[in-house]
Amino acid sequence: MIDRQDFNTRAEALRPLFEDRLRIKARDLREAFHRAGPELPRGIRGDGVLLSKTEHLVANPHIAHQLEDAPVWAAFNRVTVHLKKIDPKARRRGIILDRLAGIAFNILVVIVGFVIWLWWRGYV
Is-above-0.90 flag for pTM? Predict the structure, then answer.
């Protein structure tokens, strides 16, 4: 049996982790996991699907009484541990470096194309 208040308390504890670590603001777990989709590993996304479905089902007390709590709490723990491991500064640094690498590659392609054009026209 899953207690609705306990589930909601744990779900609310995940919200600041999503905001601080991934910069994702969401109303509920389904939206948070949907927005974070490609940034999370496959196993954590699976836990997100479980938690999203459970969040919907726990609203009905009769269904919440039938749900097993062990897999849900284990999923909460795995998601919490993963989100706490994420370093927001390193993540931002990686995004910036990826963009700079793309820009540098494009500049290199333009310079190589210009040199080839100069050679083809006979200026070099």
Answer: no
